[in-house]
Amino acid sequence: MTAMSFIVLISGNGTNLQSIIDTIEAGQINASLSAVISNNAEAYGLTRAKNHAIVTRVIDHRLYDSRDSFDQALHRCIQEFEPDYIVLAGFMRILGSAFINTYRYKILNIHPSLLPKYKGLNTYQRAMENRETEHGVSIHLVTSELDGGPVLMLGRYSIEEGNTLADLEQKGHRLEHRMYPKVLQWLSEKKLQIGNHGIEFEQQVLREPIEFDQ
Ligand code: GRF
Questions:
Q1: CATH code of residue 74
Q2: What is the arrangement of strands in the sheet containing 204-205, beginning at the earlier edge strand?
Q3: Taking CB atoms and a 6 Å cutoff, what residues make up the pocket around ligand 1?
Q4: Domain limits for position 16
Q5: What is the tens place of the pLDDT at every residue in 6-58?
Q6: Is the dihedral of CA 32, 37, 43, 46 positive or negative?
Q7: Which regions in the chain score pLDDT beneath 70?
Q8: One of 52, 61, 75, 111 is an active-site residue; which one?
Q9: Residue 88 CA: which ligand 1 atom is closest?
C-alpha cells in the first residue's frame, strides 16, 4: 500500500503534532508528514518539526488583508505537497468555505469537547461551570460550520469532584495524544475511509462516532 502524506497545520505548542511525529517514527502509521505549516512564526511546534527534519512553512495571517487572501496563500502552499489529508492540530484560524470546499472531507480537526457539545473556545472552563461530570475529545471532519463536521472519534473522561482546569486540560491532552495518531493510523491502513460515498470504518458505514477505547 502506498504511504499517505499528511500536512499538519499548527499555531502553537504542537504537542499533538509531536504525538503524530512519534507514532510515524515508531512505524505505526504508514504515512509521511510532507510539511508543517503555521500561521505563527513563534509556534513551538515549528521547532518540533525541524527537530525531526520535517519541512516547515510560515504563512503569517497578519500579512493578509482578508481571510480569503490568507486562505489562498495557504492553498498555494499546500498545493506544492499534494497531501492526502490536512490535519489541524491546534490551528487557531477559521478557514473560509472556499478553502474548505477545495479540500472537502480532507481536513481533520481535534477539538477538546464531546461534540456537538461545547463548540468553540474555552471548552474546559464551560464544562466545569456547567458542572458536567463527563468531558472529552472529538476528532472530526472540517466543514464550513465551526466544529460542526461529521465526528469520527470521541474520547471520554470523567470530571471528578475537586478537579481543576489544569486537571481537565491534562486529561484532555493525554487522550488527544493517543486519539489523533490512532485515527491517522486507521486512515493510512484504509481501515477508516472517507470518500464521496461517506465514511466507512472496517467497510461498514460509520453511523455513530467511534468510541475511543482506553
Ligand atoms: C489541543 O488541545 C486541541 O484540542 C486544540 O488545540 C490544542 C492544541 O494543542 N484544538 P497542541 O498545540 O497540540 O499542544
A1: 3.40.50.170
A2: 192-195, 198-201, 204-205
A3: 10, 12-17, 45, 89-90, 110-112, 173, 176
A4: 4-211
A5: 999 999 999 999 999 999 999 999 999 999 999 999 999 999 999 999 999 99
A6: positive
A7: 1
A8: 111
A9: 10
Q: Which of 180, 153, 170 is nearest to 28 (CA)?
A: 180
Joined together, the cell numbers standing for residue 65 give 488583508
Pocket perturbation via mutation, ligand 1, pick of 21, 119, 176, 183 by most ligand atoms within 8 A of CB = 176
Q: For a substitution probing ligand 1, which of 9, 11, 15 has the most ligand atoms within 8 Å of its CB? A: 15
Number of separate domains in the chain: 1
Structure pTM?
0.97
Annotation says 52 is catalytic: no
User: Smallest Cα–Cα separation from 12: which of 36, 52, 44?
Assistant: 44
Nearest alpha carbon, ligand 1 atom 8: 90
CA of 151 to the centre of ligand 1 (A): 17
Dist. CA 203–CA 62, nearest whole Å: 44
Determine the distance separating the centroid of ligand 1 and the alpha carbon of 1, expressed in angstroms: 30
pLDDT of residue 74: 98
For residue 77, which amino acid is it?
C
